[in-house]
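stage 2 :: seqdesign
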């Protein structure tokens, strides 16, 4: 809250202003997708390369918890954790770039520090790691995935300094704006932690991408859309929406085996995504609309293997309804502004 008070109202207004950097509707799009944003920002096709800095997570190493989030099996979403010790940061990026270049003529890449909590290390380690990444030819930006409770001021100050030299995005996992859900999935942080982290980033002009999940245990469609509404009042620049899947060797796998969890069906997920898009600001870049993992790790749902089918279904629904991102945004933002005022006076959002 203190960070928020330090920010001038002009920064807040600018961050929440629903004016997209690209007039994507004029280009016939129904949402502001990532490749469009990349083309606009970097002048051509740009690809994200997953980098494994070997970071751990306070929610799994005993600092907050030893059990991790109930759905988390880090190896299930990161190839590097399935095999041997990863190569150095620069080597990982160079290898990935070489592989891409064999198939596509792309020469702009974002180094995405993905598995684990990528700000969970002493500052000198972070400085060395991120500085190494930006020296690799072809790297035009950094994306750093982390938790809202792992962004102390000295780390944010360093990221802000780095963002003066290279495009940088802080990707913060929220998953749900409902504290009851966050407790149920053992996230180890609250929605307020997320809000404070976002405002601390805004105070330093840092770009934020929020990660959320649909289909979390115990959540109704209204709750999932409530998470979208809660984002409308925050200065975020991008969103990733993931469908929750059940991965092997997780607490969720046990809950699923006991018949106590039902994943969303593909059509339910597509409906939710379309409604969510309608309620998001048209200025927010949609970085992802599906989650996927390897066959080796996936237990359910089966449709999770069909990423392009899910994206097609979402597009079909958008077309059928003749709707688009932000269609209902002002209404959502108004509701949230009121809810936010209530929360300032002691009622929870
Ligand atoms: S915070 Fe991220 S890395 Fe840590 S346990 Fe949860 S999902 Fe896994």
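stage 2 :: out
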């Amino acid at each position: 809250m203190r960070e928020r008070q330090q920010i001038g109202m002009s920064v807040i207004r600018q961050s929440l202003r629903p004016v997209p950097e690209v007039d994507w509707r004029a280009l016939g799009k129904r949402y502001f997708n990532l490749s469009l944003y990349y083309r606009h920002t970097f002048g051509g096709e740009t690809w994200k390369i997953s980098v494994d800095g070997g970071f751990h997570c306070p929610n799994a190493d005993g600092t907050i918890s030893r059990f991790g989030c109930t759905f988390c099996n880090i190896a299930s979403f990161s190839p590097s954790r399935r095999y041997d010790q990863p190569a150095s940061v620069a080597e990982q990026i160079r290898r990935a770039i070489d592989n891409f270049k064999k198939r596509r003529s792309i020469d702009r890449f974002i180094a995405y520090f993905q598995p684990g909590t990528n700000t969970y290390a002493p500052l000198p380690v972070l400085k060395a790691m991120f500085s190494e990444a930006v020296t690799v030819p072809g790297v035009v930006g950094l994306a750093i995935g982390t938790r809202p409770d792992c962004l102390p001021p000295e780390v944010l100050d360093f990221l802000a300094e780095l963002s003066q030299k290279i495009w940088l995005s802080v990707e913060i996992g929220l998953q749900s704006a409902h504290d009851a859900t966050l407790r149920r999935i053992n996230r180890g942080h609250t929605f307020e932690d997320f809000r404070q982290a976002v405002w601390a980033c805004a105070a330093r002009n840092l770009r934020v991408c929020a990660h959320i999940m649909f289909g979390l245990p115990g959540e109704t469609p209204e709750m999932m859309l409530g998470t979208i509404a809660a984002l409308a009042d925050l200065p975020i620049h991008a969103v990733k929406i993931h469908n929750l899947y059940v991965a092997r060797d997780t607490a969720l796998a046990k809950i699923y085996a006991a018949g106590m969890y039902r994943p969303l069906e593909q059509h339910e997920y597509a409906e939710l995504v379309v409604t969510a898009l309608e309620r998001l600001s048209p200025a927010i870049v949609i970085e992802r609309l599906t989650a996927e993992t390897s066959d080796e790790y996936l237990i359910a749902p089966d449709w999770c293997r069909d990423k392009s089918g899910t994206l097609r279904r979402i597009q079909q629904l958008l077309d059928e309804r003749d709707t688009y991102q932000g269609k209902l945004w002002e209404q959502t933002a108004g509701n949230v502004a009121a809810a936010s005022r209530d929360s300032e006076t002691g009622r929870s959002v």
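stage 3 :: structure notes
- The longest helix spans residues 329-344.
- The two ends are 15 Å apart (CA to CA).
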